Amino acid sequence: FAGVVYSYDQEGVHRDARGWEQCISVPLLQPEAGQLLQHWDSLLQQFSLEEAWLPHRYEEQQHNCFTFALAFINRVRQGRGGAALSRAEFTERFVLPRAREAAGYLRLQQLLEHSDIHIVPLAEQQQQQ
């Protein structure tokens, strides 16, 4: 994916185009939500400027990057007539499935690294490089 990642820490809100290459992407919108996708960036920009996300409001356990992400998601959901998600519900429905999937890939990678298997790129992959 290409884009910008918003994060929130003790220094406030950050926008980064790099440094998140090994993060897990959690898709939140259905493909038919194209109209919302067009407004997503401006909604997120406006949201990130709110007083709630000033650096001095950061608190490691209760008002952190997870809080920032969930609050934005709930703002969008409520704006579309949906119900807000609790931390537990969001984690169970969206985060844990992706984390389990990533853990499976990491286990597979570790098994392959410690075996006598050699992975050879396909001809079409070699042409792209």
From TrEMBL:
Any Pfam family the entry gives: DUF4796_C
Domain MKRN2 opposite strand protein-like C-terminal: 2-110
InterPro entries in the record: MKRN2OS-like (IPR032016), MKRN2OS-like_C (IPR053921)
Stretch forming the signal peptide: none
Protein name: MKROS protein
Lineage: Eukaryota, Metazoa, Chordata, Craniata, Vertebrata
Gene: Mkrn2os
